[in-house]
Amino acid sequence: MKIEIKNKDCVFITLNNKVYYIDDSTDESIIDSWELKDYCQNCGSSLGIYNGDAEEDYNNSFCSKGCYYKYTNKN
User: Is 18 helix (H, G, I), strand (E, B) or coil?
Assistant: First the structure.
């Protein structure tokens, strides 16, 4: 899970390959969500050639060795 607090009224929550957007900065109580296609399914790190955090030999399930070990409880 990744939580990005933009200000006291706006937050993005990335969870299980989906982004949840909550915004009450204009007193409209906006709540939206969308699927992520280019993010690690476990930790939410961005993937891809231009802005990816992933190591070259990993995929959508586990973007790095650290991610694999963290989410499978293997050392």
Answer: strand
